[in-house]
Design a protein that fits this description.
- The complex is a heterodimer.
- In chain A, about 0% of the residues lie in helices and about 55% in strands.
- Chain A is an all-beta fold.
- Chain A has a single domain, classed as Immunoglobulins (Immunoglobulin-like, Sandwich).
- In chain A, strands 2, 5, 6, 10, 11 and 12 form a six-stranded mixed beta sheet that branches. A four-stranded antiparallel beta sheet of chain A has the order 3-9-8-7, with no helix packed on it.
- In chain A, strand 8 and strand 9 form a beta hairpin.
- Chain B is an all-beta fold.
- Chain B is built from no helices and eleven strands.
- In chain B, strands 2, 4, 5, 6, 9, 10 and 11 form a seven-stranded mixed beta sheet that branches. A four-stranded antiparallel beta sheet of chain B has the order 1-3-8-7, with no helix packed on it.
- Chain B starts with a strand and ends with a strand.
- The chains are: A mainly beta, B mainly beta.
- Chains A and B meet through strand 6 and strand 11 of A and strand 4, strand 5 and strand 9 of B.
């Protein structure tokens, strides 16, 4: 079974600084997709970034980028120039075609301080 | 675009009653909808996968007779919590995959429903 592990229950970053959230996963699949979702206090799930396993290039979306290490099964999220609005729960998620359903990690609560 | 509306956003019901939660895709057709449950400060746990016109597929440990899922059209899926008990109190979230999307298409999430059973 696929598992997604986020080892950091909470993280804190100062405004304008950079923070990296960790995620590891376990799978025997070769074709899969990885996602980072943000859940602010409103509880709305917002897609932050997505990575296709077959792509070697790390995905980037404005201030958000990932470090995808396929051999190590690691998928970390880097947030640059952190803003107060980045404060939220961040969930790493995995999707493989054989199951067609998202498996979420346990989440990391990110605090952004002034 | 790609808006998923979930209703109600919160509901309080008495133990033993049933509650229906609706999940609608407003501007797209969804072949597949997913229902998740989220306890406080925990992750989203998939309860079931709902495909239009067919029976839902439930995850291991989820009682299908307690959590009735109906996906009668390409824009509507419902979750009915039958004979609710206080332990069913939780946050329920639906998500939808567009008709023209492949299995890896992004999911669109509803805003969730907070259920409190007294």
């Amino acid at each position: 079974a696929q598992t997604v592990t986020q080892s950091q229950p909470e993280m804190s970053v100062q405004e304008a600084e950079t923070v990296t959230l960790s995620c590891t996963y376990d799978t025997s699949e070769s074709d899969y997709y990885l996602f980072w979702y943000k859940q602010p206090p409103s509880r709305q799930m917002i897609l932050v970034i997505r990575q296709e396993a077959y792509k070697q290039q790390n995905a980037t979306e404005n201030r958000f980028s990932v470090n995808f290490q396929k051999a190590a099964k690691s998928f970390s999220l880097k947030i640059s120039d952190s803003q107060l609005g980045d404060a939220a729960m961040y969930f790493c998620a995995y999707l493989a075609g054989t199951a067609s359903k998202l498996t979420f990690g346990t989440g990391t609560r990110l605090q952004v301080t002034l | 675009g790609a808006v998923v509306s979930q209703h109600p956003s919160w509901v309080i019901c008495k133990s033993g009653t049933s509650v229906k939660i609706e999940c609608r895709s407003l501007d797209f057709q969804a072949t597949t909808m997913f229902w998740y449950r989220q306890f406080p400060k925990q992750s989203l746990m998939l309860m079931a996968t709902s495909n239009e016109g067919s029976k839902a597929t439930y995850e291991q440990g989820v009682e299908k007779d307690k959590f009735l899922i109906n996906h009668a059209s390409l824009t509507l899926s419902t979750l009915t919590v039958t004979s609710a008990h206080p332990e069913d109190s939780s946050f329920y979230i639906c998500s939808a995959r567009a008709l023209q999307g492949s299995y890896n298409s992004p999911l669109h999430f509803g805003n969730g429903t907070r259920l409190t059973v007294t």
